[in-house]
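Ticket opened by: R.M.
Priority: normal
Category: complex prediction / small molecule

The reporter submitted a protein together with 5-O-phosphono-beta-D-ribofuranosylamine and asked that the result be attached to this ticket for the collaborator who will pick it up next week. Submitted input follows.
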Amino acid sequence: MLNRKIRIAVFASGGGTNLQAILDAQEAGKIHSGEVCLVIVNRESAYAAERAKKAGIKTVIITKKKTGSQEAFEAAILKELEKEKIELIVLAGFMNVLSEAFIRHYEKRMLNIHPSLLPSFGGQGFYGLLVHEKALERGVKVTGATVHYVNELVDGGEIIMQKAVDVKDGDTPEELQLRVMHEAEWIIYPEAVEKVCAEMTAKEEQPCRKKE
Ligand code: GRF
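Result attached by the on-call engineer:
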């Protein structure tokens, strides 16, 4: 089917600035091979939900507290994904480590962004401001952001896109975090989403056998 858009779900837990960057890119036509059809947040207070609602996108709040266990939490998420026929999951500051079974189910169909140049400053426990604190502690002169597929290793999946950002003398972790967002995350995440969606639709258009 030509010109089909990949149905995307974004998962978020916090402010949702990456979600916003994706929604803005969609609005501007920079993401045209896919469409955000659903936003799932796992915290009642997540501002990401407000952003999604403002954009008129179906928004569902599913918390582990309410569902009771990781298994029930994931089952509730899966139900929503199936209802909306979601084909690609985009994790945007989603603070929950999904089970291997869930990840396997969406193998090569789930993306994440990490605020460093992986494999540096990644893995279990490396999230939020700590990533930038560790980069400054180590004295790196360049950091950045990485978009990668999600696999069972935390921050260990295949890298899709990276962008470097200079560290400046005297940077605080907060300043560095903000620069990485402005100069890398909000740029490469929409680009990577479009790239992956375009690849997914291109694959569909390939005939499975050659004509005689
Ligand atoms: C970003 O720094 C992202 O790299 C990380 O979590 C943060 C989410 O921020 N995975 P936001 O909710 O998109 O504003």
